[in-house]
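Could someone model adenosine-5'-triphosphate with this protein?
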Amino acid sequence: MSDVLAFADVGVRRGGTALLDGVDWEVEEGQRWVVLGPNGAGKTTLLQLAAGRIHPTSGVAGILGEVLGAVDVFELRPRIGLSSSALAAQIPDHESVRDVVVTASYGVVGRWRESYHELDHARADELLAALGAAHLSGRTFGTLSEGERKRVQIARALMTDPELMLLDEPAAGLDLGGREDLVTRLGEIAADLAAPALVMVTHHVEEIPPHFTDILLLREGRVVAQGPIEITLTEDNLAATFGMELTLEQHGQRFAARARQA
Ligand SMILES: Nc1ncnc2c1ncn2[C@@H]1O[C@H](COP(=O)(O)OP(=O)(O)OP(=O)(O)O)[C@@H](O)[C@H]1O
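Reply:
Sure, complex below.
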């Protein structure tokens, strides 16, 4: 198995602040990782590194067999799917949903719109259907609900057939039905052996989809614990991550946590 991500003693500093410190992390093909931690823990910073969008201040960050700093990131980025609200904010409101998805491949192959092959459109339709968004393909992005936008963003991130898929808080801002729908669909993607390695950032154990394999718990820029979910996601590790006593329940492949009552 080859490494998708190989971070060794990685740190990111801004001014006098350590956003990440001493992070060792390896993600292998076929793995589906959750990165869990409180606000400000450094989760988005970690994902930005994994996406090749920032460089470490210290340590070595390996991505898809290349080393950040010694590789042309513009060649690396198309191999990585990224879905985040910051990227979604750049999508024009008037763009049709089908174009939002199909244009993901424009930047990769650098072709003009006119020459886009019917296969690209078929792939976009297939991905929208897999995300339960086929009926939205003719709508403009600006008219979609938050939940619909999230599904379209994920279809877009999968369009280039990436080797690594990064999801930054995909369920943030969704109502209960929207969250459950998205978590179920992410579980289906995670169960698909042909799917890329996945890394999903979240604040909530309730949002961990079925079939995710591993978890990295982050607090104040440092790794609290990491490894297979079944042995790493414990009440003690959650308490150390969030700084409070928590009870953890497991229902099948789903989790729920709340404050421990006195
Ligand atoms: N350019 C910067 N200069 C100084 N501090 C920064 C900078 N960028 C981020 N930070 C700080 O680094 C910390 C980690 O930020 P990051 O966005 O990675 O956390 P996060 O875990 O994703 O948080 P959230 O869950 O709230 O989105 C935060 O305290 C943030 O304020």
